Amino acid sequence: MKRIIVTGGAGFLGSHLCERLLNEGNYVISIDNFFTGSKENIKHLFDNKNFESIRYDITEPIHIECDEIYNFACPASPIHYQRNPIHTFKTSVLGILNMLNLARECKARILQASTSEVYGDPLEHPQKESYWGHVNPNGIRSCYDEGKRGAETLMMDYYREYNTDIKIIRIFNTYGPRMNENDGRVVSNFIIQAIKNMPITVYGDGSQTRSFCYCDDLIDGAVKMMNNDNFIGPVNLGNTYEMTVLEFAKKIIDMTNSKSQIIFKNLPKDDPIKRQPDITLAKEKLNWNPNYKLEEGLKKTIEYFNNYINKI
Ligand code: NAD
Ligand code: UDP
Fold first, then answer.
1. CATH label of the domain that carries residue 55
2. Could you report the per-residue pLDDT of 260-300, keeping only the tens digit for each?
3. Mean of the per-residue pLDDT values for the chain?
4. Which residue among 13, 53, 169 is best mutated to probe the pocket of ligand 1, counting the most ligand atoms within 8 A of its Cβ?
5. For residue 245, is it within any domain?
6. Quick check: 164 and 107 in contact, CB under 8 A?
7. Is 198 domain-assigned?
């Protein structure tokens, strides 16, 4: 039985990852400061004797014996990572430094949840791993983008200096049940607004594009990457089906039979105009391909938010 640490284990993706790793017969330790995560996301795991949840901030060093570390701790939505930008930056940079030191001490393998944001507002489309990005170093998104870029730097330097066993995945927009309802992300915002028949808030003219990956597919890719012995990454994980935000708003209205109207609001500063992963490398090295069609994943997510809203 492997002893696996999941930082950010009480968050949206972290909680799905803990569940998956427990189902595969591992011992799982979630480390989370509950900044955006919640006990609600992991309460169904509390009775599992192979699960532990620790409230802790990864910007502080920690020592726990382990075989693998998945570093998922970091607020991911723009409104949350901009709420305390200095702490966001520290979480990415000091957090990964502490986790790399732990991996080194324990001779553990470590996987970093990096992001498509390392490409910034990309000038190459779709984005390949070889693209260095187009990132504002001092704008309102920089605490996240540059923090994640700095984390990749540390991962690679620990690999080159100490031969630490590292893996880097770059996650593109991922959605699904247990997204935080106050996240402000497009998927949760539009679904909640549509269910409540409230105006759907499209930022800008809605012509910016995103590609949405269902959480189960993403977790599958992350686990495949961790279990791969020959490839350190970075590797893009995401769905290649790209659409405009306006098209996405219409799809959600349609799928929820909502009476909501679309309204237009100011586009946030530095909002990337387009984003679509090139996943050739993931297919080749990991034999990974997202399975969920957008409608299938959205159906599950809408069901989740319907139940959630009816409960509160
Ligand atoms: P989330 O906000 O739901 O989860 C992040 C978790 O990390 C939360 O439980 C939060 O409480 C915890 N956390 C934050 N700072 C911490 C700290 N200093 N110490 C300990 N715990 C801390 O977000 P998510 O969507 O589940 O994202 C998980 C990871 O995946 C993040 O690293 C994020 O950058 C990355 N990612 C996600 C997406 C996406 O579309 N969901 C895209 C790219 C990258
Ligand atoms: N967006 C929107 N309305 C919302 C929330 C987001 O139009 O209520 C847009 C946002 O401006 C961006 C896209 O949807 O262009 C994706 O935003 P999100 O915050 O989900 O993730 P990002 O990819 O920007 O990190």
1. 3.40.50.720
2. 999 999 999 989 999 999 999 999 999 999 999 999 999 99
3. 97
4. 13
5. no
6. no
7. no
Q: For residue 188, which ligand has an atom nearest its CA?
A: 2
Q: Collapsing DSSP states into helix, strand and coil, what is residue 292?
A: coil
Q: What is the DSSP letter of 268?
A: P
- Residues contacting residue 232 through CB under 8 Å, at least 6 positions apart: 159, 166, 167, 168
pLDDT digits (tens, 9 = 90+) for 167-192: 999 999 999 999 999 999 999 999 99
Report whether pLDDT(310) > 90. Answer: no
Strands (E), 49-165: 51-55, 68-71, 109-115
Number of domains in the chain: 1
* Catalytic annotation, pick one of 119, 144, 292, 308: 144
Q: Model pTM greater than 0.90?
A: yes
Cβ atoms within 10 Å of 229's Cβ, excluding its own: 6
Q: Which residues line ligand 1 (CB under 6 A)?
A: 7-8, 10-14, 31-37, 57-59, 72-76, 91, 95, 113, 115, 171, 173-174, 180
Is residue 129 one of the residues assigned to a domain?
yes
Domain assignment present for 53 = yes
| 27 a catalytic residue | no
Range of the domain at 57: 3-174+214-238+276-290
